Amino acid sequence: MGNRGLKLRSAGALLALGALVAGCSSIKDHRGYIVDQTLVDSVQPGVDNRQSVEHTLGRPTFESQFGAKDWYYVSQTVKTPAFRKPRTDQQTVFRVQFDANDNVLDVQRRGMEQVARISPNGDTTPTLGRHRSLLEDLFGNIGAVGTGGMGGGQAPQGPGPNGS
C-alpha cells in the first residue's frame, strides 16, 4: 500500500504543479480587424472606389473625423502576462485615402512604430499651487468669509464701481 500511496502523492503533486504553471501563462488576444493580406493587396489606387473597398475589406474600424474621410482598419495582438498589464505585441493599421470622387487615392500600411508607450508619473498628476490637507480644505475659509466688506469696514473711496 505504501508504493501506491507514493504514486498517488506524486501524481497529485504533478497535477498541482501543472495547474500552477498553466495559471501563470500569458493570454494572447486579437483585437480589431482580422487581416487577410490577399484582400488588402487587391485594393488598388485609381481602380477601386469607396463602395468596392467596403465590399472587399468590410466596414472600417473607424473613419477620420476631420478633413478627408479616410478609412482606417486597425488590427492588434495583445499579450497579457500573468499578473501584469496588457501589452501590444503586434499592430497593423491600414489607411485607405479617398479623393473627392470617392476613388481610392492611396493605401498605406503602418505597424508597431505607431504604438506609443507612455509611463504616467505615479498615481497623481502634478499641479501648480499649494497642497492642502482635507482639514484645510474643509475649514480653511473659516474667519476669511465676510471680512472684506460686511459692514464693519470702510467704504471704498475714489473712482470705481462703489466709490464716487
From TrEMBL:
The keyword Membrane applies. Keywords: Cell outer membrane, Membrane, Signal. Gene3D superfamilies: 3.30.1450.10. Residues 32-104 form the Outer membrane protein assembly factor BamE domain. PANTHER family: OUTER MEMBRANE PROTEIN ASSEMBLY FACTOR BAME (PTHR37482). This is Outer membrane protein assembly factor BamE. It comes from Novosphingobium decolorationis.
